[in-house]
Amino acid sequence: MLIRKPAEIEPSEITPKSVYLNRRQFMATTAGGLFVAADAMASLSAKPGVPLKDEKTNSLKEATTYNNYYEFGVNKEDPAANAGSLKTRPWSIVVDGEVAKPKTFSIDDLLKLAPLEERIYRMRCVEGWSMVIPWIGFPLAALLKQVEPTAKGKFVAFETLNDPKQMPGVKYAVLDWPYREGLRIDEAMHPLAILAVGMYGDVLPNQNGAPIRLVVPWKYGFKSIKSIVRIRLVEQQPKTSWNMAAPNEYGFYSNVNPKVDHPRWSQATERRIGEFSRRKTLPFNGYADQVAGLYVGMDLMKYF
Ligand code: MTE
To answer: Model confidence over 84-128: pLDDT tens digits?
Structure first.
C-alpha cells in the first residue's frame, strides 16, 4: 500500500466524514491513526470560532434538515432528501469579468487560498426564522485579491450550478435558473463575508451548498448562494434571482432591517429554529458595528 506524507495530499482528498460525528469525536478518531483526515481537520479546526454571547448554536440536525435550496425542491425537507444527487468533485469556479487576472480555481486551489477558520454566525432568513451556524471557510476577499479586480469591477455576480441531471428542481420555473446573487465590491471585500466549505467541523453537506457557498451574515439568507460555479466582476449592479422574481419584495441589498417590512409580513421579529417565542430582529442581523459604515448616506428604506 502506498502511504503518502500529509504534504502530498490535496485538501479535496479529505474523507467526508459522516455528518453525525461532532468535531471532538472526529478528532479523537483521527488521533487513533487516520492521519490523512487528521491532517486536513487540523487545518479546519486551526482557528475555532467564538460562540455568540447568550445565543445557543443550532444543532447539526436543525441546520441540515430545514433548508432552502430550490434546485432540490421548494419544501424545507426537500434538500436533505434530494441533494444526494449533486456531484461535488471535481468542482471548479470560473472567476472573470473586470479583473486583471481571470482564473479558474479548482476546489483544491480554493482550499489553499487562505487558512480555514470557524465562524459562528447568526443567519436570518427573509421568511422570518433564524439559526446560529458554525461555518468553516475563508474570506471572499482572499479569492477576489487573487484575480485583481479593475476599477470597473464595482459589483460581484455569483452563479450556482444549473444541471437538470443533478438538480431535479431546475425542471420547474420557480426561479429563473441558474440561481444568481450579487454584492457591491466593498461588501464582497468585507472580512465578515466568507466562502464556506464546511460547517460543524466537517465538510459542507450537499443540502447546505457543497462544495462551496457564500455566507454574508448581515444580509437575509437568500444572498448566501450555494454551490457556486461562477463569479464575475461587473461594472453594473447584477441581476439577482429573488429580485428578478419579485422586485417589490426582495431588493438587491437585502440587509437585515427590522424597520423595513416585507410587503406580506413584518420583519421586526424572528423565530430562532428550536425556540418557541419570537425574538427581536437586530439591524444588520446584529453586525451593525462592523458593517453599518458600508451604507452611510444611503436611504435604507429605498435601498432595501
Ligand atoms: N442558493 C441556491 N443556489 N438556491 C437556493 O434556493 N436559497 C437561499 C440561500 N442560498 C438558495 C441558495 C436561501 S432563501 C436561504 S435562507 C439560504 O440559502 C439557506 O441556507 P441553509 O439551507 O444552509 O440554511
So the answer is: 999 999 999 999 999 999 999 999 999 999 999 999 999 999 999
Cβ atoms of 6 and 36 within 8 Å: the answer is yes
* Atom 11, ligand 1: residue with shortest CA distance: 69
| Nearest atom, ligand 1, residue 131 CA | 24
Q: Is the pTM of this model over 0.85?
A: yes
Question: Does ligand 1 have an atom closer than 6 angstroms to the CB of 208?
Answer: yes
State the CB neighbour count (10 A cutoff) for residue 89.
12
Sequence-ordered list of residues with C-beta below 8 angstroms from that of 119, at least 6 positions apart, any chain: 49, 134, 135, 136, 137, 194, 215, 217
CB atoms within 10 A of CB 108: 15
Q: Check pocket membership of 221 for ligand 1, CB cut-off 6 A.
A: yes
Residue 94 near residue 231 (C-beta atoms within 8 A): yes
The pairing of beta strand 194-199 with beta strand 213-215 = antiparallel
Q: Is the CB of 225 under 6 A from ligand 1?
A: yes
- Please tell me the residue having the least CA distance from ligand 1 atom 12: 225
Question: What's the CA-to-centroid distance between 145 and ligand 1, angstroms?
Answer: 26
Q: What is the pLDDT of residues 145-191, one digit of tens each?
A: 999 999 999 999 999 999 999 999 999 999 999 999 999 999 999 99
Q: Which atom of ligand 1 is nearest to the CA of 221?
A: 16
By alpha-carbon position, which residue is closest to atom 5 of ligand 1?
A: 69
pLDDT computed for residue 45 by the predictor: 52
Q: pLDDT tens for residues 41-53?
A: 445 555 789 999 9
Q: Where are the domains of the chain?
A: 2-295
Percent of the chain scoring above 90 in pLDDT: 84
Q: How far is the CA of 28 from the centre of ligand 1 (A)?
A: 32
The correct answer on CATH 3.90.420.10 for the domain covering 2-295 is: yes
DSSP characters over 232-277:
EEESSPPP-HHHHH-TTTS-SS-B--TTS-BTTB--SEEEETT-SS
